[in-house]
C-alpha cells in the first residue's frame, strides 16, 4: 500500500508539474493631446496595448506559439479580450504557421514602416482591410529575402474569401517591400467593436484589391523612404480605382529625430472617368528620447483637398473635414513600450 501510494504520488507530481512554457507580457502606452482645425477642437487620445505571448518547445524540436492582444479602454474597438489578436501556431526551421484572429500583413506593412510619423492616416488608414480570421504562413529568411501568405475563408457559410501576400528583402542599409491583398465576393466587415475581431463579409460580386511597393535606405544618421500604393474596388459593372504615394526623410541628432513626409492621394477613376477627389498632405514630427523605452514627440500636419469630395478610398480618415478644402493638426504626445 505504501509503495502504491508513493507511485501514485510520483505519477501525479509528474503530470501536475509545470511545463515551464514561456509566457511574456508586453505592450505600449501612448498619450496624445492635439488641436484640429475645421471644427476647431482640442482633444486627447489615450492608446494602451497589452500583448500576451506564449511558447512551448515541442518534443519534435518545433515550437508552439500563441498570442492574445487587446487595446484597453478605447471608445470604439478592441476592448474584448483577444479582439485585437488571438491566434495559435507552430514555428520551426521551415517557417511559421498561425491560425486565428490576425492583422493583415499588407496592412501592417503600410502602417509600419511606411505610414509613420503622421503619414498613417492617408497611407495605412485608407485600406480595404486591417485583418481577418487567417491561416498564415511566414517563411524563413533566405539570404535577406522573406515572404508571407495569408488566407481567409470568411464565415464558412458563404463563398467570400480573402488572401494576402507580402515579401521583403534586406541587404545592409537597403530594404525593399511589396504587398498585395484581395477579396473575392467579400468586403471588410467592421466588427472589431463587437467582440468578434476583424473579419470579411460576404457580398456577391464585390471584389477589392490593394497593393504597394516601397523602399528604404539609411545613410548613417540620415534615412529616406518612398512607397506607392494602389486600390481597386469592383461591384458588378462598377469599378473604382485610386493610387497614392509618399516620400519621407529623417535625420537624427543626439536624442532628437526629425522626420518630414509628403503624401498624396491622386484623383480616383470611376468607370473610366476621372474624379477630382485627391488630397495632398505634409507631415512633420520631432521625436525626443526620454529613456531607452520612452519618448516624447511633437507632430504637425497639414492637408490640402482638391475639392469637398471624399476620396474614394479615404472615407473617415483622420483629418478629413466634410465640406472643407484644408485642415491642420498639431499634436504633442508621449509613448512608452514595455
UniProtKB/TrEMBL annotation:
A GO molecular-function annotation: porin activity
Residue ranges constituting the Porin domain according to the UniProt record: 9-306
Pfam families: Porin_4
Biological process according to GO: monoatomic ion transport
Major localisation: membrane
Membrane topology classification: Multi-pass membrane protein
Cellular component, GO, one term: cell outer membrane
Assembly behavior: Homotrimer.
Protein name stated in the entry: Porin
Lineage: Bacteria, Pseudomonadati, Pseudomonadota, Betaproteobacteria, Neisseriales
Amino acid at each position: 500500500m505504501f509503495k502504491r501510494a508513493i507511485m501514485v504520488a510520483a505519477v501525479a507530481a509528474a503530470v501536475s508539474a509545470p511545463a515551464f512554457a514561456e509566457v511574456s507580457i508586453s505592450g505600449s502606452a501612448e498619450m496624445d493631446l492635439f488641436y484640429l482645425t475645421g471644427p476647431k477642437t482640442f482633444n486627447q487620445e489615450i492608446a494602451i496595448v497589452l500583448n500576451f505571448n506564449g511558447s512551448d518547445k515541442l518534443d519534435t524540436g518545433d515550437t508552439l506559439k500563441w498570442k492574445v492582444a487587446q487595446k484597453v479602454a478605447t471608445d470604439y474597438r478592441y476592448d474584448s479580450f483577444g479582439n485585437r489578436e488571438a491566434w495559435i501556431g507552430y514555428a520551426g526551421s521551415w517557417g511559421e504557421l498561425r491560425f486565428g484572429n490576425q492583422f493583415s500583413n499588407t496592412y501592417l506593412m503600410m502602417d509600419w514602416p511606411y505610414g509613420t510619423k503622421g503619414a498613417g492616416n492617408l497611407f495605412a488608414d485608407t485600406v480595404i482591410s486591417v485583418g481577418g480570421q487567417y491561416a498564415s504562413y511566414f517563411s524563413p529568411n533566405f539570404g535577406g529575402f522573406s515572404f508571407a501568405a495569408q488566407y481567409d475563408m470568411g464565415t464558412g457559410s458563404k463563398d467570400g474569401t480573402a488572401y494576402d501576400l507580402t515579401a521583403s528583402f534586406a541587404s545592409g542599409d537597403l530594404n525593399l517591400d511589396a504587398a498585395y491583398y484581395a477579396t473575392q465576393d467579400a468586403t471588410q466587415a467592421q466588427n472589431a467593436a463587437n467582440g468578434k475581431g476583424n473579419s470579411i463579409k460576404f457580398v456577391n460580386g464585390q471584389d477589392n484589391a490593394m497593393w504597394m511597393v516601397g523602399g528604404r535606405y539609411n545613410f548613417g544618421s540620415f534615412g529616406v523612404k518612398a512607397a506607392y500604393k494602389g486600390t481597386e474596388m469592383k461591384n458588378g459593372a462598377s469599378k473604382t480605382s485610386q493610387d497614392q504615394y509618399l516620400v519621407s526623410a529623417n535625420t537624427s541628432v543626439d536624442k532628437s529625430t526629425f522626420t518630414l513626409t509628403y503624401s498624396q492621394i491622386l484623383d480616383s477613376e470611376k468607370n473610366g472617368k476621372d474624379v477630382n477627389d485627391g488630397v495632398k498632405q505634409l507631415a512633420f514630427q520631432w521625436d525626443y528620447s526620454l529613456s531607452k523605452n520612452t519618448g516624447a514627440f511633437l507632430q504637425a500636419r497639414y492637408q490640402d483637398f482638391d475639392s469637398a469630395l471624399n476620396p474614394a478610398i479615404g472615407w473617415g480618415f483622420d483629418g478629413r473635414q466634410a465640406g472643407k478644402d484644408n485642415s491642420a493638426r498639431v499634436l504633442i504626445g508621449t509613448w512608452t513600450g514595455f
